[in-house]
Amino acid sequence: MKWMKPLLPIAFLSTILMGCWDKLELEEQAYTVVLGLDKAGDGLVKVTFQIANPQVGSSDTGSAPNEPSSDTISFTTPDILSAKEMANAVVTRKISFAHLRTLVVCQEFAKDALFHRILSTSMRDPEMRREVHLIVSKENASEFIHKNKPKLETRPHKYFAFMQERWRDTGLVPYSTLNRYFTRLTEDTLFLSILATTEKNNQKPKKNEDDYLAGNFPQESGDPTQLIGSAVFKGGRMIGMLTGEETRYVLLLRHRSLAHSFISTLPDPVDDRYQVSVRMIKSGNTKVKVDVTKEPAAIQVTVPLRLQLLSIPSFVNYALDTQKQELLTESIQQELNKDMMELVKKCQREFKGDPFLWNLSARHEFWTREQFEAYDWSKQFPKADVKIQFDMKLESFGKQIDSPQVEVGAGSE
Question: Where is the Spore germination GerAC-like C-terminal domain (predicted)?
């Protein structure tokens, strides 16, 4: 055993030094926080890198007071990984995807079959994580990234992180990560991605404040980027779009959804000149029952909702009148049922796919996977007989039971 004693210091030093051979300092790396993909033709893709400056917005800002928060460069190459390698012909630091959280693809390229090939092969890179959020822009992704100049966020990645988290509060955009994209590539389901643009085509304001696509929401100032609505994918290709309102309804009709509440305006049944503002809270999982023994298949959907009445511009006293409460509840049910059924028919006729994930409930009706695959949900869903009902309860009228009323034109002389 004496011969081992000289080797002990070497073994001890090796445990301390091991793993440091490929260490890179912070200033030696270029962190890509946003990646853009555009169609370039001839089987090529235009890849745009938005590289963050780690010194801007940090405690080290004093050493780089005049440097920009990020740098944006574009290359046309056969795929993403070759573009990552070629970027070092311009960027002196090593390109890293370790902090990549946002992938922007232009609408034109998302409709091309090449998009899925480029995206799926890039996942071979260990730095391409499935938690990356997928955004579809109406304009070129490079143009979108260049024009996106948020006024309140110094670091570019923070803007997208905060905006993407707002889907939990509003439901105006879906939760769209690469992981969800790859798990919903089959013909049975539709994948919904965030829809965004910096191009404005403001429409006339609507009574339904959420019934817009990105770029159509009437906006007069502020950040140029709008994120509202969703891009619909089937089999790895974009086939259509849904408005913010339709995106909300998709989330409500799913058995389980991460967005549980949002505020919406609906017609006042007592005075149709006004809208009432209601917070809709999904109080449990949506019940989906699929009867595959019938032809066509029968789908019964029950959505549990709790309503909180927030604003009543008509001054109708709903809080103390139970008959008017029943009238309001029935009116909301009819309005939601009408809009949701229109959405279901749109998905059946136009998209011929299921964004509601009802295929998961249909699977439980079969003993084996082979039986379900033979049933072919992609062909059964477009002709299915769908019925929607609500387990609805009006539970709150705000802090103030009644609103102070005055006659129009009244006042001191």
Answer: 229-398
